[in-house]
Amino acid sequence: MGFKYETQNMKNQKAAIGFIFITLLIDVIGFGIIIPVLPKLLAQMNHITINEASKYGGYLLFAFAIAQFFFSPVMGNLSDQYGRRPVLLLSLLGFSIDYLILAFAPDFWWFFVGRIIAGITGASFTTAAAYIADISTPETRSKNFGMIGAAFGLGFIIGPFLGGVLGQYGLKIPFYAAAGLSFANFLYGFFILPESLALENRRKFDIKRANPWGSLKQIAKYKQLRYLLLAFLFLNIGSHAVQSTWNYFTMYRFEWTEAMVGYSLAVVGILVAIVQAGLAQKAAYIFGLERSIVLGFALYTIGMFLFAFATQTWMMFVFLIPYCCGGIAMPNLQSFMVGKVEPNQQGELQGGLTSLMSLTTIIGPIMMTSIFYFFTTDRVPIVFPGAAFFMGGIMMGISLLISWFVLILKKNHSQ
Question: Using CA atoms, how far apart are residues 396 and 234, in angstroms rounded to an integer?
Fold first, then answer.
C-alpha cells in the first residue's frame, strides 16, 4: 500500500513539473519574441540611432525592475499564504496586458506604463521556483530547478526566432503575438495547473517581511547565504552586459538584422536548454554542488571577456559556448540555498532572490547600456563597443572570487 502511494505521489510530482515547465516555456517565448525588434522600434519611435536607442532600452528595463523590486516579495509572501497558483495566474494575466499596451503604444512613455504593470505583477519565475521547491526532494532539487533553465532556454530558441521572422512583417507584430501567447498561458494555468503548497506549510502574510529589504534581511540571516547573495548580486549585474546590450551591440558592431539577432538568441536558447536540462545536474554529481557553482562562475567570466574583444560574427557564436556552460552555476546555487531554508519560507526565499535580481536590473541595464553608448561615441579617444562586456567580466570575476572563498577555501579550512 505504501509503495503504491509513493508511486502515485511520484507521478503527481512529475505531472506538476510538466505543468510548470509548459507555463514558463510559454512565458519566456512571449518575452523573447519582442527582443529582436526592440532596438529598431525604439530608434524609429524616438528618431535616434541604434546605439542611442540602447539607453532607452535601459530605461525600460529600469522601469520594470524597480516595480518588480518592490512587488516581488509581496507576491512571494502572498503565495506563502494563499498558494502558488493564484499568484502565478495573476502574473501571467499582467504580462498579457503589458504586451497589449506595448503593441498599441503611440509613444515611448506608454512603454513605461506597460513595463511598470509587468513589473508589479511579474512574479512568474519567483512563484514557479517556490512551486518547484514545494514538490522537490533534496535528491531532485538540482534537476527540477534545472527545468526552469531548460524552459528558459527552449523559450529563447522559439521566442527570438519567431520575433526575428515576424519582425520582418512589422515591428509591432511580435507584440501582438506575445500578448496572445501570454493570455493563452493564463488560460492554460487556470484550467490545468494544480496547487502545490499544502495547507500545513502555509503562513500568514506579514507586511514587515513583504518588502524587498525585509525579504532580503530574512534570507540574509542564514550566515552562509550572506556572501553567496553578494556573489549572486555581482553575477546578475554583470550578466546585463549580455541581457541589455546584446541586440544593440550586434546591430551596431556587425550590422545584424532583426532576423540575425533572433537566430543568435535561438542558439543561446539551445545551449542553455542543454546545460540546464542535464549538464547542471551532472556537474553537481561529478564535482558536488559547491565546485559546480564555482566552475559555472568561472565559465561565465571567461565567456564575457571573450565577447568584449570579438571582431567577427562567428566569434560571437563560438564564445557563446563557454558563456552558456556557465549556466551550471545557477540551478546548483538555488539548490544549495533551498537546502538552508525551512519549507514554509521557500516563497520568501524566492521572493528575496527575485528582489535581489530586480535590484541588479535597476543597476545593471543603466550601467551597461550607458557604458556601451559612451564607448561608441566620439567623446572617447578609442571606440570600444565591447566595453560593457568587459565590465560584465569584471563583475563576474568578483562573484567567482567570492564563491571560491566561501564554498571552497573556507570549507577546506574548516575540515
Answer: 6
Q: What is the spatial distance between Cα 134 and Cα 52, in angstroms, rounded to a whole number?
A: 44
Cα–Cα distances in angstroms (integers) from residue 85 to residues 74, 94, 101, 341, 346, in the given order: 15, 14, 25, 21, 15
Q: Mark out the alpha helices in 288-409 (DSSP H runs).
A: 289-308, 313-325, 329-338, 346-374, 387-403
Name which of 34, 111, 122, 12 is nearest 71 in CA terms. Answer: 122
With a cut of 70, say whether residue 216 has pLDDT above it: no
CA atoms within 13 A on the CB side of 4: 1
**What is the C-alpha R_g of the chain?**
21
Task: For residues 320 and 306, give the distance between their C-alpha atoms in angstroms, rounded to a whole number.
Answer: 9
Convert the pLDDT of each residue in 19-43 to its tens digit.
788 878 877 888 788 889 999 999 9
Q: Is 255 left (phi over 0), alpha (psi -120 to 50) or beta?
A: left
3-state secondary structure of 29: helix
Q: Are 85 and 188 in contact (CB under 8 A)?
A: no
Residue 275: exposure state from Cβ atoms within 10 A (0-12, 13-18, ≥19): buried
Distance CA 122, CA 116 (A): 9
C-alpha cell at 332: 546548483
Q: What's the grid cell of residue 50?
A: 541604434
Q: For residue 115, what pLDDT is reported?
A: 87
Please report the pLDDT score of residue 413 as a whole number: 58
pTM: 0.80
Q: What is the three-class DSSP state of 41? A: helix
What phi and psi values does residue 382 have, to the nearest 5 degrees? -130, 120
Rounded to the nearest 5 percent, the helix, strand and coil shares of the chain are 85, 0, 15
Between residues 152 and 275, which one has the greater pLDDT?
A: 275
Helix then strand count (H, E) for the chain reads: 18, 0
Type of residue found at 286: I
CB 182, CB 95: distance < 8 Å = yes
9 close to 140: Cβ distance less than 8 angstroms = no
pLDDT tens digit sequence for 332-377: 888 888 777 777 777 667 767 776 777 888 899 999 999 999 999 9
Q: What is the mean pLDDT of the chain?
A: 84
CA distance 91 to 93: 5
